[in-house]
Inverse folding.
C-alpha cells in the first residue's frame, strides 16, 4: 500500500541531518570562551563582526531572543539569484547538489525570523509543485534513466521510490484481472431457504 508522510519530529534522522547544514552568520556581540569555533583565530573569545558558518542547530540557539548574539544570512542556494532560477524553471535545477535535504533545510531556515520565512516557504512549495509533474512521469515510466535521481533531494527520491513501488503493485493487480464476480455463500444459502419455504406453501 502506498504510504508517504513528510513530517519532521525529534527522532527523525532526516531532520537531524538537516540541522547539521551550515548557515553563514556574523557575530554582533563579544562571546566569551567560544573562540574555538573560529579555526582561523587563536583568540579565546569571539569578537563582534566575526563571520562564521555554523550548523543550523547552533544558529537556532544563538538567534534566540534571550541570547541574540548573531545576524544570519541566507545560504547561497536560498538567495535571490537562486530563487530566480527556480522560479524560471525548477526542473533544470540540481537540488541534490545544493543540499541533500533541500526542502527540510529550507523549512528549518524559514523558522528564523530574519530570513523572510513566509517567502521562503512559498518558494519551497512552488518548487515542489513545479517539479511534481516530472516526478510523477518518471514514477510511471519504469524505463526512465536512473541517473535522473541524482538531481533530486532526499524527499523527492523517497517520493519517486514509493511512487514506483505503487505503480508496480498496480500493474500486477491489473495483470491479474478482476475475475468473475460470484454471490457469497451466505447469500446463496439465504435464497435456498426462501425457495424451500415457498415450496412448503
Amino acid at each position: 500500500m502506498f504510504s508517504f508522510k513528510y513530517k519532521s519530529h525529534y527522532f527523525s534522522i532526516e531532520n537531524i541531518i538537516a540541522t547539521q547544514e551550515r548557515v553563514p552568520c556574523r557575530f554582533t556581540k563579544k562571546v566569551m570562551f567560544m573562540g574555538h569555533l573560529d579555526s582561523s583565530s587563536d583568540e579565546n573569545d569571539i569578537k563582534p563582526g566575526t563571520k562564521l558558518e555554523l550548523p543550523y542547530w547552533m544558529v537556532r540557539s544563538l538567534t534566540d531572543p534571550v541570547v541574540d548574539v548573531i545576524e544570519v544570512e541566507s545560504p547561497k542556494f536560498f538567495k535571490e539569484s537562486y530563487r530566480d532560477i527556480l522560479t524560471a524553471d525548477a526542473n533544470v535545477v540540481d537540488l541534490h547538489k545544493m543540499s541533500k535535504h533541500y526542502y527540510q533545510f529550507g523549512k528549518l531556515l524559514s523558522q528564523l525570523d530574519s530570513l523572510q520565512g513566509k517567502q521562503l516557504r512559498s518558494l519551497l512549495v512552488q518548487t515542489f509543485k513545479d517539479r511534481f509533474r516530472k516526478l510523477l512521469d518518471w514514477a510511471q515510466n519504469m524505463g526512465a534513466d536512473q541517473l535522473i535521481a541524482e538531481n533530486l533531494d532526499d524527499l523527492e527520491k523517497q517520493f519517486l521510490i514509493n511512487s514506483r513501488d505503487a505503480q508496480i503493485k498496480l500493474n500486477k493487480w491489473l495483470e491479474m484481472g478482476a475475475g468473475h464476480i460470484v454471490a457469497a455463500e451466505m447469500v446463496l444459502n439465504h435464497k435456498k431457504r426462501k425457495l424451500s419455504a415457498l415450496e412448503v406453501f
Q: What stands out?
A: Residues 85 and 93 are 8 Å apart (CA to CA).
